[in-house]
Amino acid sequence: MNLSEALENLKSFDLNDLDMRNAGSWPGAVKGISFLIVIVAVLSLVYYFDINDLQIELDRVTEEESALKDQYKVKAEKVANLEEYKLQMVEMEQTFGALLKQLPSDTEVPGLLEDISSVGSLSGLEIQTISLRPEVSREFYVELPIQVEVAGGYHDLASFVSGVAGLPRIVTLHDLSITAGRPGEGSSGAEKLAMDISAATYRYSGEKAK
User: Fold this and answer.
1) Residues 60 and 110 in one domain
2) Taking the model in full, what pTM does it have?
3) In the chain, how many domains are there?
4) What is the pLDDT of residues 154-169, one digit of tens each?
5) 11, 16, 70, 101: which has the fewest C-beta neighbours closer than 10 Å?
6) CA 24 → CA 10, 17, 79, 139, 189, distances in Å?
């Protein structure tokens, strides 16, 4: 039977004549079409349950690969700059250590008060009050407030502020108040001024007093 005859037989064939329990008796063309339908159905099921899952897994692995490449790039840059980072850490530790040495311990605070008093005297000032206030705890350090009251000429006060700033220990000055005092007693013979100023030094809170 050639193709044209098979097509003619298929045209004259009624699907109602098919015996589902005896597929072997179906015409060859019907068998062929049925076989193709079954193959397509099987391939569709394979794609849906297997190939589709593989595609999803491939997409996931592709995204993971991209993330790993980004991580590798960041880590490679860090490794390339590792020596520079180490040098920076050493410099930071040295700077931090130098700053810590400028912070007085509890036993050094009285000496610091004497230094401030000495600076005032050398500047030609009259020392009225230099006293410690209650310390204030911060997150990483302890602040030690110092109240200072002195009297003298304008240039004497400026010399005092400059001298305190030059002390080997860290001392900050703030809340400065200057009022007119008695005339003719400053080093320059000008009117004496009264200065009330708050000073502060600091202690590293992670370091016990020596």
Assistant:
1) no
2) 0.48
3) 2
4) 899 999 999 998 888 7
5) 16
6) 16, 13, 73, 91, 133
